[in-house]
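Module 6 notes. Inverse folding takes a fixed backbone as the condition and produces residue identities as the prediction. Think of it as a translation problem where the source language is geometry and the target language is the twenty amino acids. Below is one complete input and output pair. Work through it position by position during the lab.
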């Protein structure tokens, strides 16, 4: 009867350890899911910012082209002269280049946020699985300890579940015999 007390205490300790491992894994997974949601929000914000920036730059370009046209018209200059066309094309090209560069920079940030969100999601899955795996390892260790104690104390009849006779190997492990 006295031999059952250490096993019962070990069982309680193992159960608490398993519970702790699973809870820790779930807490880490929840933290990573929160990070994933934050990164997804950041990605959406940056994509919206890219569209807003492009819209503002297009409006600025339109205003600049209208100002140039008004100044030329006020001076009585042609809007279709080669000089006017070159000025318009240069202004448009410069503005479009700046617009594309800005958009790409912002969208690179959005892509980084998306990738970080994916990594956080993967880490959440790993954390949850890790908690269960640690718990499972604790249970297996407990079962091994009970089996070894039981065999040393003669609690078992010396046969495995298939009725094969157990024997001890040179390393001290038990294995099924023939």
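Target side of the pair, the amino acids:
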């Amino acid at each position: 009867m006295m031999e059952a007390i250490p096993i019962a205490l070990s069982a309680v300790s193992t159960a608490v350890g398993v519970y702790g491992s699973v809870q820790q894994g779930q807490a880490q997974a929840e933290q990573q899911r929160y990070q994933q949601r934050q990164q997804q929000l950041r990605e959406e914000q940056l994509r919206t910012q890219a569209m807003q920036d492009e819209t503002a730059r297009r409006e600025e370009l339109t205003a600049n082209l209208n100002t140039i046209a008004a100044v030329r018209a006020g001076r009585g200059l042609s809007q279709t002269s080669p000089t006017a066309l070159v000025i318009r094309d240069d202004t448009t090209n410069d503005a479009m280049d700046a617009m594309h560069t800005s958009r790409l920079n912002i969208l690179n940030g959005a892509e980084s946020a998306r990738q970080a969100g994916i990594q956080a999601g993967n880490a959440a899955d790993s954390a949850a699985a890790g908690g269960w795996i640690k718990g499972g390892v604790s249970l297996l260790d407990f079962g091994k300890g009970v089996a070894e104690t039981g065999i040393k104390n003669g609690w078992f009849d010396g046969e495995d579940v298939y009725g094969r006779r157990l024997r001890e190997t040179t390393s001290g492990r038990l294995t099924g015999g023939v």
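Reference fact for the lab report: The CA atoms of residues 33 and 113 lie 14 Å apart.
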